[in-house]
């Protein structure tokens, strides 16, 4: 696949399924050349077929931190300047607080936080000389209020929101905007698995969501496209809750 002249390039991590795939779809529809990074080769193949010629997929494990600098160099060398980075890749783990091991906690933070920092750092290095770029981090309702049995996930996403602000303050003077999307409860395979096995939690989610329904991955894709584009040129350091009102529900 080749990038056309003057075409923007976006990287979407965890872009082969769920919210990440919806973001990649929206970018491709907007004629943004999109590099999807993921671990599951079968899902990557499906994404490549779905997204077409405006997309390339790369199989990479972002928890292998030492390999990230070469990955970003390779993308720039092969496809040209990176304009947009969406840090979407993440994992969840549902366990009682006292049952979470140090290894469990470390694994979630490595995937959801450390790898986000590392890939952002490398992308910032190539964005800075051009004095332009947009980085979008994906947070969660877990960063807005306490949710039981997801302590490591909550810690990682709360840190993502703090890191977004710190990045924005430091990088915005260099022309790089940094923002965050906090999805509410979105209809994906991951959320279905979590909610359908826990009727009490599902009822609670629905009862405190004023719009009375789950969101769709496309809702997040639309928000990501907005934040990545010129329409959001004066927006940086914010976390947008796309949640049907869940975070302010009673």
Task: Name the features.
7-stranded parallel β-sheet, 15% strand, Rossmann fold, 8 helices, globular, 7 strands, 250 residues, alpha/beta, 44% helix
Explained architecture:
By secondary structure, the protein is of the alpha/beta class. The chain has a single domain (9-237), classed as NAD(P)-binding Rossmann-like Domain (Rossmann fold, 3-Layer(aba) Sandwich), CATH 3.40.50.720. Helices cover 44% and strands 15% of the residues. The chain has helices at residues 18-29, 41-51, 68-79, 102-127, 151-171, 189-196, 199-207, 217-228, and strands at 9-13, 33-38, 55-59, 84-87, 133-138, 176-183, 239-242. The chain has a seven-stranded parallel beta sheet with strand order 3-2-1-4-5-6-7, sandwiched between helices. Helix 1 packs across helix 8, helix 3 packs parallel to helix 4 and helix 4 runs parallel beside helix 5 (151-171). The longest helix is centred in the middle third of the chain and has 26 residues, at 102-127. The chain is globular and about 50 Å long.
């Amino acid at each position: 696949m080749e990038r056309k002249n003057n075409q923007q390039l976006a990287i979407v991590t965890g872009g082969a399924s769920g919210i990440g795939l919806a973001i990649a779809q929206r970018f491709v529809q907007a004629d943004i050349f999109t590099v999807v990074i993921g671990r599951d080769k079968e899902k990557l193949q499906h994404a490549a077929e779905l997204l077409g010629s405006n997309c390339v997929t790369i199989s990479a494990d972002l928890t292998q931190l030492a390999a990230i600098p070469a990955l970003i160099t390779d993308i720039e060398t092969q496809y040209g300047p990176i304009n947009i980075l969406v840090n979407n890749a993440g994992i969840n783990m549902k366990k009682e607080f006292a049952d979470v091991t140090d290894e469990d906690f470390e694994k979630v933070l490595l995937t959801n936080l450390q790898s986000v920092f590392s890939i952002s750092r490398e992308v910032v290095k190539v964005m800075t000389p051009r004095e332009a770029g947009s980085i979008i981090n994906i947070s969660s309702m877990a960063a807005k209020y306490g949710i039981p049995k997801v302590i490591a996930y909550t810690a990682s996403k709360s840190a993502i929101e703090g890191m977004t602000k710190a990045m924005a303050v430091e990088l915005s003077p260099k022309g790089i905007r940094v923002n965050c999307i906090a999805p509410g409860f979105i209809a994906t395979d991951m959320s279905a698995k979590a909610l359908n096995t826990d009727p009490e939690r599902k009822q609670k989610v629905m009862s405190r969501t004023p719009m009375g329904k789950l969101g769709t991955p496309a809702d997040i894709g639309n928000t990501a496209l907005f934040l990545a584009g010129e329409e959001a040129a004066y927006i940086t350091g914010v976390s947008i809750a796309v949640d049907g009102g869940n975070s302010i529900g009673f």
